[in-house]
Write a structure and sequence with these properties.
By secondary structure, this protein is α+β, with helices and mostly antiparallel strands. It is about 25% helix and about 20% strand. It has three helices and five strands. Strands 1-2-3-5-4 form a five-stranded antiparallel sheet, covered by helices on one side. A hairpin with a 7-residue loop joins strand 2 and strand 3. The chain binds guanosine-5'-monophosphate (5GP) and zinc ion. The site of zinc ion has 6 residues, from helix 1.
Amino acid sequence: MSQDCLFCKIVAGDIPSELIHEDEHCVAFNDISPQAPTHILVIPRKHIESMDDSSTNDSELLGHLLLTAAKIARDKGFAENGYRTVINTNEDGGQTVFHLHVHLLGGRKFIFPPG
Ligand code: 5GP
Ligand code: ZN
């Protein structure tokens, strides 16, 4: 846990969130500022600042985050229609919270490339 990390505080339960899923390795909760009818953040319990800070030691964990997002999309019933998973990295990537997270967005059509 990183002392002043917002998402570490959510993992610890010190800051409330609308929990969607939790397991040994990750937690998923609704984004506070949804950009789609469904907008969920899937985050590792372990504090990793960004993709830029990840390593081969995190291979299984990174796979688990994506597979968890896919399962949530199926469970919530929008997988077949489709969805968007996004990982913003560092300043140019638009990252604002420096605890690695996968955005899972669904319930509308997305354009590509994103802005
Ligand atoms: P980033 O911009 O780093 O890719 O994504 C950070 C996301 O965290 C944003 O979509 C933002 O709305 C969300 N967020 C920021 N603060 C909170 C919070 O306190 N609670 C929740 N649930 N989401 C948050
Ligand atoms: Zn953290």
